[in-house]
Specification:
This protein is mainly alpha-helical and 67 residues long. The protein has one domain.
C-alpha cells in the first residue's frame, strides 16, 4: 500500500478530537450554572412530596404490558 500525503493542515481524526475536547470543556463550564438553577427551582416541600401517580394511562400501560 502506498502512503497518502496529507495536503490539509488538519486531518479528520484531529478535527473530531478537537470537537470532542471543546464539547467536554463546554459541558464542564455549564455544569455549575445548571445545578444552581435546578436547586433554586425546587423547595424543601417539593423534595418531600410524592411524585408518582398511578393515573388511567399508567394503568392501561401496565395492563397491556402485563406488569
Amino acid at each position: 500500500m502506498k502512503k497518502e500525503t496529507q495536503t490539509q493542515g488538519v486531518d479528520r481524526r484531529g478535527f473530531l478530537r478537537s470537537l470532542g475536547a471543546g464539547a467536554g470543556a463546554a459541558a464542564v463550564a455549564a455544569a455549575p450554572v445548571a445545578l444552581t438553577e435546578a436547586q433554586a427551582a425546587e423547595s424543601d416541600a417539593d423534595k418531600k412530596k410524592a411524585r408518582y401517580r398511578e393515573t388511567d394511562h399508567v394503568k392501561t400501560y401496565y395492563r397491556t404490558n402485563r406488569y
